[in-house]
Amino acid sequence: MPGRAVILLSGGLDSATTLAIAKADGFDCYALSFRYGQRHAAELDAARRVAAAVGVKDHVILDIDLRRFGGSALTDDSIAVPKLSTPSSEIPVTYVPARNTIFLSFALGYAEVLGAQDIFIGVNALDYSGYPDCRPEYLSAFQQLANLATKAGVEGRTVTIHAPLIEMTKAQIIRKGTDLGVDFDLTLSCYDPGGAGEPCGHCDACRLRAKGFAEALV
Questions:
Q1: What is the number of domains present in the chain?
Q2: CATH code of residue 134
Q3: Residue ranges in the chain modelled with pLDDT below 50
Q4: Closest Cα partner for 12 from 185, 157, 155, 198?
């Protein structure tokens, strides 16, 4: 019988679908979001909407200031968010150094306090921007670390990192979310939204989202 699970919830369509999958699988869902110094608060507004609509036991929003480090277009105003960029093998400037490692570490601590043995993250390794912390081998390594570095793991209460979208295209993710009743109007994927939270339509995240909806015929 599934128990408690911590769900990393950004407010985008991937994390919203991941939350819906965890809920459908019977987990008691505890959502975790971050105010980490990102350019805008609109994604946290979206995360709140999604958490309320899907239904969670609790929704924690933590403050951590990655803007102090900078190094990313999402946390440093001196680095512009690329618009209409061409595909490249280089890691884009929207990559936030160690972000998923930081987020998963907080999720691991929260899970241990809750007595949860499951953590869900909505990373994807097909239709994505090429971030190194979205790869299956990274998640496998973090799971190994999690079970070495916690009291729960040492005592045999092992943690499983779930990435149900890891091998899905954006179109497949959108179809899955639609099947589960996710209201994608509540979500936001844009890296550089306007003052009212409207998507720019031109950044990588917006274009991947639009491509997914077109291919899903939704």
A1: 1
A2: 3.40.50.620
A3: none
A4: 185
Query: In this predicted structure, what is the pLDDT of residue 113?
Result: 96
CA-based nearest residue to 7, from 140, 128, 161, 168: 161
| Contact call for residues 18 and 7 (beta carbons, < 8 A) | yes
What is the pTM assigned to this prediction?
0.95
CA distances to 19, 82, 142, 192, 211 from 205, rounded to whole Å, are: 19, 10, 25, 9, 10
Expressed in angstroms, the distance from the first to the final Cα of the chain is 34
Residue numbers of the domain that contains 127: 4-216
| Cα–Cα dist 86/70, whole Å | 24
d(CA 53, CA 14): 15
What's the rounded Cα separation, in Å, for the pair 125 and 131? 9
Runs of H (alpha helix) within the chain: 13-24, 42-54, 99-114, 136-149, 151-154, 170-179, 204-216
